[in-house]
Amino acid sequence: MSIESGVLYVVATPIGNLGDLTPRAEQILKSVALIAAEDTRHSKPLLHHFGITTPMLAYHEHNERQVMDKLLQRLREGDDIALISDAGTPLISDPGFPLVRACREQGVRVSPVPGVSAAITALSVAGLPTDRFVFEGFPARTQAARLKQFEALQDEQRTIVFYESSHRVLVSLQDIAQAFGADRLVVLARELTKTYETVLVDPVGKLIEQVRQDSMQQKGEFVLLIAGYSRTQEDGLEPQVERVMRILLAEMPVKQAAAIAAKLTGEKKNKLYQQALVWQKESS
Ligand code: SAM
Question: Quick check: 258 pLDDT over 80?
């Protein structure tokens, strides 16, 4: 009789507030034979808080390959295992991908126990469009690579989500200003679900000043969200020019309005015309 293999449960844990561990996660963590944890010391207080006494084994990026074989063997022998990371959902900028892939290749069942993830949590409160977004993980550590990374995203229209650490949050904001312009709207979501949770929303130039002046804003954990590129925002008209153009548009066809507004304001006729088309498209 062949032994049926165990299940690898990929379990999300809180990103701050312990109340965010789901009842199902608690029950699974209590019932499995083993918990593979990114950092066993880090996860101890969480398990202790919930009275979970399941044995733990360290599974992190430096021992991922060696430990993976052990875990696969236990799973094949029929043991259920829970994979957790230090916070949030495993595999999302966290270890676990090789293990999940190996399980799938070897026919071992992998089952999610979903919960919080910092990126999604930040998106839910940022006030930026969420219908489409891109998750970019952590920005590169060196300035040259970081700038290159940001510059490649200059024309990205979807909301851009980054993770960032306290050591580099200010330099990353400065590089964002350089690559995207100081007017690009950025959201800095800090210490989500924790005591000092703050969500700052401002053009990045202004945000840099705020973070510089208040050193508390450089402490903790961050999700950095960059508003996607929008023609109206980036290439927009001066407010007074826009006002003239909108008044004329209410009275006459686009071409005529652009011609008169160009004479009145000195703005290029074609730019006024193109902008009016964007407005028309947005309001249709
Ligand atoms: N797997 C995790 C998840 O699902 O969110 C992310 C792990 S990644 C190594 C850790 C990063 O997530 C932190 O450096 C920070 O950028 C972000 N993060 C985690 N907790 C956060 C929190 N409470 N508030 C803001 N950002 C957080």
Answer: yes
